[in-house]
Amino acid sequence: MLTRVLLFLCLLASPQLAKHVDLPAPYSDDCILDHGTNLYDPKNAEAVPWFDVDLDKPASERFVEVAKAYKDNIHELIQVIKDLILPTHPDALELVDGFFGEMNKKIAQPYQDEIASIADAIDIPVGEIVMYNIFYEIFTVCTSVVAVDEKGKVWHSRNLDFGLFLGWDPLTHEWEVTSVLRKMIININWYRGGKILYKSNNFAGFVGIYNGMKQGAFSVTANERFVDKDQGGRTGIVKWLTGEMADAKWMTWLTRETMENCNTYEEAKEHLSNTEMLSPACIITRSWEQADSVTEITSRKDPWFILHTNYDPDVEPLYLDDRQTPGDNCMRKLGRKNVGFQGIYNVMSSRTTLNKLTTYTVLMQTESGAFETHLQGCPGECWPF
């Protein structure tokens, strides 16, 4: 049924690729606020465990505890990827273990030693852990929201969607890689000098940062930008390997570097704005102070919030992947007076902001230091991306 719907939409809307197209029932956009539904329960965040990473320890020791705790899950993820690739590319495993294994020698410290230590801890070829750690540079889908409530507090959230075209299970109607990743979501307290430096959430075995929060300073979410194919993450990786972009930063490692080395919103914005990245990305950064945040978003139609997916503001989303229109509409229904973890979580839990690729929703409030990660899913008849 879903295949026929996709084909129908392609035929219907091919002359107007940049226009919003209402998806047919039962896949249509649905803001749960219209039904008076509240799915937010802070206790659900307790399902995602917390780990400590001490930056004062040698790089080779930092991720051993996490790796051992999720050994079976990491092996399962790698096996799912192998099962997807090997039937049509039987020599791919040799390429991964050899090529990506050698690639780790070119990766900057401390990431090189951290990745090698994860591979050693769970007895898996280092090339396979390298492949896992560069996934995000190649392709992902996500939605970030920053909103300012009536009291001037800034609230930051993000849905991370991953696993598009990486194995569709016809029995569960889920993406195979996405299903495995949901079991590998963790929170991390990053320590330096015996104190928490910042917080993030991660997939176990992944050493980069998708989102992070430094209490009293700023929060960050990194969204991949959909651009011309010759400007994407694959091109950046090739240029890095050939030395053409030898000093460019991997996106999730740049985010982590920013969290570790920048102490203010201004420092973070300056660093992110002036550092070359291998993959095109939109880094959403917000301080906890109203003035900075409002100044950043007043050019929008709705000056109290910004919802950003993977398309530049001046580019209309692809008609099959328009999370922007339903997301904006749902935020307007929420209203500024209802901005908070509950309200924003319900927006992020509405279709098609929520879809089959969604693994989690993270909620951050920098002033208070509140940081919650909620496991997500879109069971039943739900849009695949």
TrEMBL record:
Report the GO terms under cellular component: extracellular region; lysosome; membrane
Instruction: Tell where it localizes.
Output: Lysosome; Secreted
The main enzyme category here is hydrolase
GO MF, any single term: fatty acid amide hydrolase activity
User: Pathway, per UniProt?
Assistant: Lipid metabolism; sphingolipid metabolism; Sphingolipid metabolism
One biological process term in Gene Ontology:
sphingolipid metabolic process
Q: What is its EC number?
A: 3.5.1.23
Q: Which domain of life is it from?
A: Eukaryota
Ordered alphabetically, the record's keywords are: Disulfide bond, Glycoprotein, Hydrolase, Lipid metabolism, Lysosome, Secreted, Signal, Sphingolipid metabolism
- Family stated for the protein in its record: Belongs to the acid ceramidase family.
Q: What is this protein called?
A: Acid ceramidase
Its lineage reads: Eukaryota, Metazoa, Ecdysozoa, Nematoda, Chromadorea
